[in-house]
Amino acid sequence: MTRTVQKFGGTSVADPECIQNAATRVQAALANGERVAVVVSAMAGHTNQLVDWVETLGGPLADRAEHDVVVAAGEQITSGLLALALRNRGVPARSLQGWQIAVRTDNTHGAARINSIDTEAIGRVLDAGKVAVVPGFQGLGPDGRVTTLGRGGSDTSAVALAAALAAARCDIFTDVAGVYTTDPRIVPRARKLQSVTYEEMLEMASLGAKVLQTRSVALAMQYNVPVQVLSSFDDEPGTMVVADERMMEHQTVAGITYNRDEAKVTLVGVRDQPGVAASVFGPLAEAKVNVDMIVQSVSPDGRTTDVTFTVAATDLSRAKEIIEPHARDLGCQRIDADGGVVKISVIGVGMRSHAGVAHRMFQVLGERGINIQAISTSEIKISVLVPEEYTELALRTLHTAYGLDAE
Amino acid sequence: MTRTVQKFGGTSVADPECIQNAATRVQAALANGERVAVVVSAMAGHTNQLVDWVETLGGPLADRAEHDVVVAAGEQITSGLLALALRNRGVPARSLQGWQIAVRTDNTHGAARINSIDTEAIGRVLDAGKVAVVPGFQGLGPDGRVTTLGRGGSDTSAVALAAALAAARCDIFTDVAGVYTTDPRIVPRARKLQSVTYEEMLEMASLGAKVLQTRSVALAMQYNVPVQVLSSFDDEPGTMVVADERMMEHQTVAGITYNRDEAKVTLVGVRDQPGVAASVFGPLAEAKVNVDMIVQSVSPDGRTTDVTFTVAATDLSRAKEIIEPHARDLGCQRIDADGGVVKISVIGVGMRSHAGVAHRMFQVLGERGINIQAISTSEIKISVLVPEEYTELALRTLHTAYGLDAE
Lengths: 407, 407
Hints:
Two copies of one chain form a homodimer. In chain A, strands 3-6-2-1-9-11-12-10 form an eight-stranded mixed beta sheet, with helices on both faces. In chain A, strands 14-15-13-16-18-17 form a six-stranded antiparallel beta sheet. A two-stranded antiparallel ribbon of chain A has the order 4-5. Helix content of chain A is 35%, strand content 27%. The two termini of chain A are 40 Å apart. Chain A is globular and about 80 Å long. In chain A, strand 14 and strand 15 (304-312) form a beta hairpin. Chain A has two domains: 3-175, Acetylglutamate kinase-like (Carbamate kinase, 3-Layer(aba) Sandwich); 256-401, VC0802-like (2-Layer Sandwich). Chain A is α/β, with parallel strands linked by helices. The A-B interface holds A 16, 19-20, 50, 53-54, 56-59, 62-63, 65-70, 72-74, 76-77, 79-85, 87-88, 94-95, 97, 99-100, 144-146 and B 16, 19-20, 50, 53-54, 56-59, 61-63, 65-70, 72-74, 76-77, 79-85, 87-88, 94-95, 97, 99-100, 144-146.
């Protein structure tokens, strides 16, 4: 029989009523002839409460192993409650904790990686015709202690379990209807995508579309697990996240994302000589400051040049501090820092075969008078940095230009 | 080095501040050169919240195994939090869950009995100079699932752990200062006892003094574990619960308890013939209705008699229903039921060697015009049933009569 994994996020199990609703979703899958393993998050808000207690009592350097003991309790509670709701409807079900399965992880408490999932215990439950309800986010470390996978880790738990069980599909139930062409709060004509490739989803997830954890998408791609993102609050199909080859025809552009959590740094008038990049970015890398976009202007006089790069907004002041002495050594006249920028990205695997996507982007933004401050590209993505106040205008303009608007 | 077990009840770990206070108690024991294992309850109120969810989703017949998964999370949380508070003070500490130790129980989910406690893992932690923090109330069933010991089971966990670790003492921290001669809310001159024997404590616990779980006292007696009941909110010594032979001299009467959860049933005018008791009490036993006191009046005419007995107030209407047909067969003229009664008990191992305790009880109650409706006695206890409205008068009168009043 077909095995599927269903995952319910925090808002989908926020209270007893939501948990009943999740139970209805499970029953629908069973009625469809599927054997179902369910992965649950903690009730919305509960993890925050637990983390708050951990920080109050454990201090800023709270022991991660004990942190994991405390916060894993949130998912444990929901797993038992959903099993109870199912049993109360006459559906055979039981919970299996991370240590019972076991979901084996490395020893990085608070941000553990899954090494393997034993399928014997859970397979026995499924083969007996029962629903297995599994707390997401938690695992068992090599020392026999509870580990957690880090924030949002339940998506990863679900995909890993789907891979281990060779499940036909992993349904991620959440509070949005699926993956949209862009943020519907900014562009009302945004459309829900029927499907999207793993690579597109990866770019979209890491660029600010907070639908799916990046880690879980990478895992799904690696094990070729079809993932569906859908709402637990309506009956519409969601968005399928699948391998490239499963999609009959690609959109040229699948979606447009934005990320306001970027800040721009410009070193004005540094000497134009070999090794400039190394002496600026080496110290940043050592200090674990991630640099995203980098632009070095062509030197007009052959002697000096401007170097522009972006970092996370939260790293801005630290980045400035780190590079200041090095910039002086390079004869830098001035360091400009600007937190008021947004990175806008156009994403689509179709770009591989369609020329002109970038050209069109620059053209329409230019027509609207939006100044592009930096550009970076990958095989399936073009990102531009523009002043933050143009976020809405840029998104709407691009959404229309690539033909993504809903009718 | 001396090992001790400290147990903190729900009100003693109710919030982060209380947990800090508990950490201070642990540090005091460490400063005293003790190796400490700590048993914690769930934060006050948390178990009720979890049980409420279980009943909402699981219904009246909620699966007990899943119930245990959910409610055990409460103690898991506190165990991690107390370990964090200790580590934050530089005290080496770690939590060990029931399944990690393991605390092995039978399979009676929701009311499991402890079969054995492995001491290897926890012994290693203690021998390494660390504090072991253990969630009370929970264990590991024979099927590898989480079990719970039933309400108040954390006292039992603590005493069982103290027995397994051959601990010198088990300190039960709670929100009262110790065991009192009677309820101080009713008798202001009640005194805290310095010590009390296991047997006295057993009688007091099962008769309504809600300081210690009866099960935990029976276990302490069986393994001869010295237990101290004390407040976590002041620095006074509490009450030691110890074996009879450890006490230099006994009070004749250690304490006076009352229990309002009793109801009286009288079968008036049943035929006085052999087998009456069996035909009344057999059906009640079959229906698992516990009968406490039984009085059969002497038959004045040799033909009919009255049979009076008490049951828990919650069982009263069911008890009446069950015996009605049988009472008719015995020619019973009328069944009287009375919920307005209280059972008052005088307890003390000294009764074994002191005559006249019962006589004094009947005498002083009679002097106050309090009518005794039933009497039952054991080796170290005399209980009387009186109208409920005399509770306070009876308690105060007896407390004075046995010389228990505080100066």
